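Box 3.1 A note on notation
Throughout this textbook, protein chains are presented in two layers. The first layer is the amino acid sequence; the second is a token string describing backbone geometry. Keep the layers aligned when reading.
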Amino acid sequence: MFPEAKVTGFDFVEQAIEAANNYWGRDLSFSTNDITQENGVIYDIVSMFEVLEHIEDWRKTLDQIMNIADKYIILSFPTGKMRPYEKHIGRYRNFIMRYLSFKKIGDSCILLRKNH
């Protein structure tokens, strides 16, 4: 559909990158680098699915993502009351949608469109 598109995936887990390279490696690139540390690299679209709830200072991270996303940021995260076991899988929080000022496009997926 977009033959000229360059797609890069990031994850902190080496096994996830290895699996992604084995499955998609010929068409896409994957890295364990920190996307917020990719100096000077700007992306048209940044998507983060089930990430922000695992980051203690999620606002800082989202600000950094805003600086490297040229057009869109697509986010997905858990919402509602956090269950006790979720702390054991590395979550700091679940989000409450009414406190977020994003355009909702699903049960827990939002789209941020940057204005230029």
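The radius of gyration is 15 Å. Residues 14-24 form the longest helix (11 residues).
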